[in-house]
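Handout, section 4.2: multi-component inputs.
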Amino acid sequence: MCAQQYPERLTRCSQLMKEAGLNVLLLTKPSNMFYLTGDGRLCAYAMITQDGKVALGVPQTDVMDVKQLAHFDHIVGFDDEVGMIHSIAHNFEHFGVKEGSVGLEYTFLTQSMMGILTHPHAKPAAIIVKDCTHILSELRIVKDKEEIKRIKAAAKVAVKGMKAAVGALKPGMTESQVAAKAEFAMRRAGAEEFWRTYVSSGPRTNIAHGFPTLRKLQAGDLVMIDIHPIVNGYSADICRTVCVGQPTAEQQTAYDLYLKAQQNTIAKVKTGVGMVELEQTLRQVVKEGGHGGHIFGPPIHGVGIDFEESPLPPGHAFFHGEKEPLPLERNVVIAVGNCGLYTGPWGVRVEDTVVVSLKGPMVLTEYPRQLEK
Amino acid sequence: MCAQQYPERLTRCSQLMKEAGLNVLLLTKPSNMFYLTGDGRLCAYAMITQDGKVALGVPQTDVMDVKQLAHFDHIVGFDDEVGMIHSIAHNFEHFGVKEGSVGLEYTFLTQSMMGILTHPHAKPAAIIVKDCTHILSELRIVKDKEEIKRIKAAAKVAVKGMKAAVGALKPGMTESQVAAKAEFAMRRAGAEEFWRTYVSSGPRTNIAHGFPTLRKLQAGDLVMIDIHPIVNGYSADICRTVCVGQPTAEQQTAYDLYLKAQQNTIAKVKTGVGMVELEQTLRQVVKEGGHGGHIFGPPIHGVGIDFEESPLPPGHAFFHGEKEPLPLERNVVIAVGNCGLYTGPWGVRVEDTVVVSLKGPMVLTEYPRQLEK
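Output:
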């Protein structure tokens, strides 16, 4: 990432902090830290002041590594949780922040982590705590050129992973082994990491979060494969459903319906369209096909550093600490088709990563959409 | 798992709930739900009453699947977050619980999830909220025969994963590709899943959480590989550090010191010994070798459904909502060597999964411990 990105991002962050009345942000979510500083990792934090200064607290072991990767003004290493608490107090003091409010990530922090970050030995008592989830989402929602480039690279890797998994499908192999094929291919193609792979088969295609099990594929099974590689810190999201053998007429009809709903929705993606309109397009097609009660989960979500991020549809957004999404802007990236259609004995899902542009949708995950292998 | 396990576990749970003054538990952590009911998944919850009754709330799509896997008295499917909230209210009503206290998992729940579970439309206002982390940890800490069997199976898979990764090491391959080798081998050997793989190389071996990157291995690099497969719901934990080429004398000396510290600690593992005593053994050896300031992180942690669980050393435990661990009992399973020794330019770590028995340690992860490949 170009080094001047971070000052620019911090300037936009300052503006949003002022509007929200936040004096300081205290971030621990790796993706948020990565966006603002160039490095995000576990057991670390970034303190951001309203005038755009950055103090990092990281494990003592990681100081040298972070110095090479991150944009920051001040860095402290700590040995354990007590050290982390004291380093937070040190940074409040370093920046002369004694009152006002600090923004924490309510959608990421566990209760026990909240306890560490707001410990009386960490945070001055006069400073109140607020949720800052929506600020980071607003900052990250429109992608710059370099980000789009990285998401495109991740999409290419996702397609290679899907090809390897679908190509390997045969009766007798376990769901876990299907996942292995996709993951191996993604790492070989240049993914440094991936988010948890979903592979479900047969009756398990009807469940919402189908993580792979030791179930063996049987002839005639539907298999649902949902993968999300990470390439240079950015993700892509693709899902395909494929039949090991010959699908039934009922399965083919449901698949065709869902694909039509997904494709009609993608066709409407462009600058200025609303998330609600897109969601309704998908739901309407499925409803007209007689499967209105068979959708589960948000049909669309954003894609970026996280494979599921803002924008989220309004209902879902509310419970994830987000504001209602504004009409889509150019270079927002979304995954369309996330929900799936679940009939009871089996389900189908097709999902693609799409860039919002002035002219229309730019689909990044081009891989055949067909139920028969 | 034998079906009668769950009533027995629920009886023990009831006893601990009475001692803690908790009328109901409302669990969402998959591993905790899995332990008490036989099924644990995302976006679901288990409500447990003090007399051992279980109500499950799961996505509507998952009801049939959960019915086949779980032990429960009552199950409700929901369509979205609002449905989840209403189903919680329904279950409080179903069990006639109008006052008292509900236990929530403070070490797992984000602020926003806390908001859903304690929403005024979910939880009766008269019911107060307490942390129940330590209850589940106490329940799960001593493993039964079937659990030990599963952890042993996971350990065998871990060894196969390590063998594949170490066998493949050569200059030019990326850390991510090393991880791919381990993960592919683990899935092929029978893992349904794995926790995130750590692979770090060269200067990156000095960082605390070395997730794989696109860094290419160079001749002479140390490579640290830490893997944790899941087999039938249970995990194992193994870490090895290996040199791609000839280690320096300094590296060999540090490695030998850390291995000695780890092995001396393992030798002391038996019924009745304390976590602090074990931790001090490891620290003392490292200190005597002149690397006292180079340890980071808890040297020992429990292993079970989660690859990192109770028992944790006291300091670490406090910040994770746990009570101080009692002396080790028979059939507690721990990973010894989790901390690592970090010199600055590089680090070394050797970690093994060990069962506590009356006679001494039973090491499950037998794979060569040598720096030279």
